[in-house]
Amino acid sequence: MELEGKKVLVRVDYNVPIKNGMVEDDTRLRATIPTINYLLEKNCKIILMSHLGRPKDLLKEGKSFEEAKKELTLRPVAEDLSEILGIDVGFVGDCINVDMPNDNDVVLLENLRFYEEEEKNDMEFAKKLSLNGDIYANDAFGASHREHASVSTITKFLPSCAGFLVEKEVKELSKLLNPEKPFAAIVAGAKADKIGALKALAKKADKILIAGVLANTFLKAKGIDIGASKFDEETFSAAKEIISLAGDKLKFPVDYVVADKFDNNASTQTVAADNIPKEWMALDIGPETIESYKDELKDAKTVFWAGPLGVFEMENFSHGTREIGEFLGSLNAVKIVGGGDTGAAINTFNLADKMTHVSTGGGASLEFIEKEGRLPALVALERAYKKAKEE
Ligand code: 3PG
Ligand code: MG
After folding, report:
1. Contact between 307 and 338 (Cβ < 8 Å)
2. What backbone phi and psi angles, to 5 degrees, belong to 272?
3. How far apart are alpha carbons 193 and 258 in whole angstroms?
4. Residue 192: its pLDDT value, please?
5. Is 140 exposed, middle or buried (0-12, 13-18, 19+ CB in 10 A)?
6. Do 117 and 125 contact (CB within 8 A), yes or no?
7. pLDDT at position 191, please?
8. How far is CA 171 from CA 133, 141, 192, in A?
9. Strands 45-49 and 183-187
10. pLDDT, averaged in runs of 10, over the chain (391 residues)
C-alpha cells in the first residue's frame, strides 16, 4: 500500500473490560501498537474504529439507549491509548458524518455498535464509514469472525489491507491447521460457543482434554449426576454427536473440587467425577485430573488451549488452570492459546512469555480452526485484494 501521508481507517478490536470508567485489561490495545506506530512513521492520519460490548443486550435488559451509550462509550479507551502511545489520542463522539480534529494524528471514533446497521453488515453504513479514510486496514482479529459492516462490507469501498496484528494472528493460528503431531487440545471454560471447534478438533487433534462447564455438560449427557453444576443446553444437545465423532480422543475429569455455592469462601471438598453431591457444584478439576492431564500433554508437539479449567478468578478454584498452564509453559511444543478468558488467565498467572502465541481473539480463534482459517472478515479482505489486482 502507498501509505505516505494518507488517512488510514483502522478497524481495531478494543472490546475490552471497563470498570468504573477504567480499562481493566489493555492487552488488545497494546496488540495494535505495531500497526499504529508504523502508520505514524509514514506520516499518516490514523482513524481508529471499534465496537465495545453489546448495546443491543442492554436494550433487551430494559435500559434506555442513552444509558447504553453511557455504559459502552469508547472514551475511556482513548484515554488509555493516549497513555500507552505517549501522544494525545483524539476522541470523536460518533463514527459517521464526523469532523475530524485537525490537531491529532490518532483519533478514536465512538462505538460502532451504537448503529444497528453495523451488525447488519449494511451497505450504506459501510459506505458512510469508508468516508472517514483513504485506505482501510483491518487489525481487529478478535472481531474477524463477524460479518459486520466495519470488517466485511467496508472492504468494497476502500483499498483494503490487513494490519500487523491480523497478519501475526493468521500466521500463528495457521500452525493449528496442519499441526505437528501429537496434537492435543484443551477445551474448557464457561462459554458455550465451542461446538463447531470441537467437531473440527475431533478430526485434527489426537487428544481433546475437556474441563469447565463443558465437562459438566458432557458428563450430564453421559447420564452422570452433576449436582448443581452449571451446564450448557446447546452443547448438551450436540454432546452425543461430538462423542461419536471424537470417540476416546475425548478425555474427561476424573475428580472435581466442588463447592456448596459460587463463592471463593464456599465450603469445598474433592470428589470423584461420578460422585458430585446434590446441591454442590464443580468449580475446578481435582488433583487426580491435574496429574492425568499433565500425563496426556507431556509428549504433545502442538497444543491448543481454549478456556480456563476452573473458576480461576477465585483463588480456591484456580489450581487446575494454574497448574496445567504452568505445565504447558514448561513443554517444548508449539503452544497456542485462545484469547478471551484464557488470555486473562495467562495474564493472571504470568504465563504469556512461555507460550508460542496468545491470541487476542476468543470466539475468533475457535472459529479460525473450525473454518480452516476462512473467517468472514479475512475472506472479505482477500476478495478486496483480488479485485484490486485485477484492476
Ligand atoms: C470478543 O470480545 O469476543 C470480540 O470483540 C467480538 O465481540 P462479540 O462476541 O460481541 O461479537
Ligand atoms: Mg465473543
Report:
1. yes
2. -65, 150
3. 24
4. 74
5. buried
6. yes
7. 77
8. 27, 12, 26
9. unpaired
10. 96 95 95 98 98 96 97 98 98 96 96 98 98 98 98 97 98 96 95 89 97 95 96 92 95 98 97 97 98 98 97 97 98 94 94 97 95 97 92 85
The angle that helices 212-221 and 233-246 make with each other, rounded to 10 degrees, is: 80
Cα–ligand 1 centroid distance for 256 (angstroms): 30
Q: Name the 3-class secondary structure at 51.
A: coil
3-state DSSP percent of the chain in helix, strand and coil, to 5: 45, 15, 40
Residues 177 and 369: beta-carbon distance below 8 Å:
yes
Q: What is the pLDDT of residue 193?
A: 82
The pick from 144, 146, 152 for probing ligand 1's pocket by mutation, whose C-beta has the most ligand atoms within 8 angstroms, reads 146
Which among 11, 13, 29 is the best mutation to test ligand 1's pocket, defined by most ligand atoms within 8 Å of the CB? 13
Among 246, 162, 254, which Cα is nearest to 208's?
Answer: 246
Query: Within 10 Å of residue 101's Cβ, how many Cβ atoms?
Result: 11
Strands (E), the chain: 7-12, 18-19, 22-23, 45-49, 90-92, 106-109, 135-139, 160-162, 183-187, 207-210, 250-251, 255-259, 268-272, 281-285, 302-306, 334-337, 357-358
Amino acid at 361: G
pLDDT at 294: 98
CB contact at 8 A, 341 and 362: yes
Pairing of strands 207-210, 357-358: unpaired
* Residue 26: burial class (beta carbons within 10 Å; 0-12, 13-18, 19+): middle
Backbone angles phi, psi at 115, to 5 degrees: -110, 125
Are β-strands 22-23 and 18-19 bridged in parallel, bridged antiparallel, or unpaired? antiparallel
Nearest atom, ligand 1, residue 51 CA: 5
User: How much is the pLDDT for 339?
Assistant: 81
CB 142 near ligand 1, within 6 Å: yes
pTM above 0.90, yes or no: yes
Helices 164-173 and 33-41 cross at an angle (nearest 10°) of 140
Other residues' Cβ atoms within 10 Å of the Cβ of residue 372: 12
